[in-house]
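Inputs:
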Amino acid sequence: MGEQILLEAHAVAKHFGGVKALHDVSLTIRRGEIYGLIGPNGAGKTTFFNCLTGLYKNESGHFTFAGARLAADAPHKAAEAGIARTFQNIRLFGNMTAIENVMVGRHMRTHANVIGAITRNRATMAEEGAITRRAEELLHYVGISERAHDYAKNLSYGDQRRLEIARALATEPKLLALDEPAAGMNGTETEALRVLVEGICRDGVTVLLIEHDVKLVMGLCGRVAVLDYGEKICEDVPAVVQKDPRVIEAYLGGSVA
Amino acid sequence: MNGSRKKSLPWQRHWLGVLLVGAVLLAVPFVAALGGQAWVRIANFAILYVFLALGLNIVVGYAGLLDLGYVAFYAVGAYVYALLASPHFGVHLPFWVILPLGAAIACLFGMLLGAPTLKLRGDYLAIVTLGFGEIIRIFLNNLNAPINVTNGAQGITLIDPIEIGDFSFAATSTILGVEISGPQKYYFLLVALAILVIIVNVRLQDSRIGRAWQAIREDEVAAKACGINTRNIKLLAFAMGASFGGVAGGVFSAMQGFVSPESFSLMESITILAMVVLGGMGHIPGVILGAVLLTALPEVLRYGIEPLQDAVFGRMIIDPESLRMLIFGLALVLVMRFRPAGLWPSPQRRRELAESSD
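Outputs:
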């Protein structure tokens, strides 16, 4: 049972001044599942992501990832532990080509230092070759090989989302955290995304998904947690979550009244 | 190693250009000598500034860290050389010991400055580095009491020239029937060093490290999320830039035979930065152009303004020195107005600026 758990959040809390963005949120993500995190706007989903990936420092609580405690406030350490993420408002390296973006994702798993770069010794060149090949594979995997040498900022919106996923996958994550990947996508693009995410999960990467598109979440996720005003109000399989009165109230209650 | 990607090496494709540049580089000190050794020295300074500007390019152009105190590392290198190869302490170490040592000490200073400050960004980092540059200069100015380390404002004189065995870079000698003066020897040494720093720049740009720098410049948060330890990678840029500054300082010391704190003023830092920015940040040919122009232009003005005024007005009306700064400043303003990405920008930088000016 123990080794089945990949990520545990223990009473994670984050405040911005007087605003409690996260209030003792605890949840457990198992290996190999697609876990959805939903909630109305401002419920704290992205804040949870930022705490998990070390961009924010949570005031209390902590994360246990793959059996070890995550250091707070150290994004590169979270990435090294095996958490890769995408951003709600896409953050690519716009003036680098698509393939270069993915190559940056390989940074952490490669080792060439300055001496190697300057002398271009055999080990460095072999590693460069491996980085390039892996980046090409990943671009192919997400289906944008033909855009490899275009600048990231010139890609279409859907392709940028895919590129961000490819870059995240380049870090060899155990957990891929996607922050609203379907935002702004049309039906066809969303469907293609669903297929991609399912494939990623099948290939052994656990997925944590923040999403507004309830249909996508319900179709894709094995389990879903609902956040409202920084608190987890529900966590279960989609069918149960959909019928939970607190969830219905969180989504509809405020706006109807 | 990748057969399909790289068909031939760059110098095989552009052998004519390489040959031409080589011939020009070879001819420069002899042509300049026709106008007197002073012109050879000017050429030397141009190359020295190419070296310095390319060192700073790693920090500013690649990693995107605005460093206004670069001259501090140049000063550290210069004083390391001066103190270890002059009668001041009676120590006379050979140059091949001192130059690497100077680079190492400058690198150490770079890390000392960088470690606590690299969390700062943009303007804040610029102010801290500016302060650091001034601190080093003031230290050099005042470290003559209670123990006389730097000899204060008088500076250090009689610094040893670079010598390889009996072959001194300070004296004129005849090689293969060609008479080569001291400055001309330094010229060739400096060209060799400049080629070295160019290779380092080119190769770094196209490496794992270079990509990481570019990623940080593009989006630091995303770079962190990709697992880049941004602090260490930035520190690396800082340390490398500082090391090159240290080497340049050492050569400067040896070439001049004299150093004093006033050579390392804020103006010097700004000039080097101006070379990088004016030429085209992050683009090697641009930076070289910027360095050569900004070294040569003031000298040409210095030697040209006086005769020109004599010819036009019959006497000196404006002090050449002040007119020089005026023209210099005006040139900078014009370039920044009409070519904000620099005189010869990288395609990359041009895109970045085109985007932000939308």
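Remarks. Strands of chain A lie at 5-16, 19-30, 34-38, 60-65, 68-69, 83-85, 175-179, 206-210, 223-228, 231-236. Residues 114 and 164 of chain A are 27 Å apart (CA to CA).
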